Amino acid sequence: MRQNEFSAPSVGDGMESAVYEPELGQLPDVSEKDAEKVNTTGTTTIGITTDEGVVIATDMRASLGGRFVSNKNVQKVEQIHPSGALTLVGSVGGAQSFIRSLRAEVNLYEARRGEDMNIEALATLAGNFARGGPFFAINPILGGVDDDGHHVYSIDPAGGVMEDDYTVTGSGLTVAYGTLEREYSDDLTIDEAKQVAASGVKAAVERDTGSGNGVFLAEVTEEGVDINGHKDFDEVL
Description:
The longest helix is centred in the middle third of the chain and has 22 residues, at 92-113. It is globular, with a radius of gyration of 19 Å. The chain is 29% helix and 27% strand. It has helices at 32-35, 92-113, 119-132, 173-183, 190-207; strands spanning 39-40, 44-49, 54-58, 62-64, 68-71, 77-81, 84-87, 141-146, 149-155, 161-163, 166-170, 215-221, 224-230. It has a five-stranded antiparallel beta sheet with strand order 11-2-3-12-13, covered by helices on one side. By secondary structure, it is an alpha+beta fold. A hairpin with a 5-residue loop joins strand 9 and strand 10 (161-163). 43% of the residues are buried.
């Protein structure tokens, strides 16, 4: 039988299999020198679960190669689900594309099934996208609320999905984790969790050059997602 001339080559044809490869041409290789020109978020992002919901906090800085501040007012947490939010960590373009893709899948799921995707399924989908898609250097936090409870997941660049009571990602994580280890408890109210998360971001921006310029706080409950930015940490501490 004659092979369809438009069919994708198989691995046996000497071609690597890649689900997200373009139909024509190939994805560009990004060298270390090229990476220095990419807008990156540097970043400190924090997710905390409470009995009332989930709190996500991020700084506001974007940089070029970690050496030049290219934007001082980046919103690094976005709503992607009626009761779920995701942070932007890594390259700005890759993170924005990742969020658009997940939003589309969430909307498609609701349209087909007449119900919202649960957060565990969304985390699994995010991990699959991170592992198989052309999303450059992402390491987001997913926080959400569903019928099974309140959830915080970290998604690593290789597609690993890990749930925890609280987590930190980004270049300022080592400093922020110290603050959370000291201030976190499992009986925090959502307002107390906001203060703890903001405190963690503030500690990170003091030492991490990739983080700075304020804090965005997202409050995620069964009623939805509320995101607010604060240039002055004293507004929330």
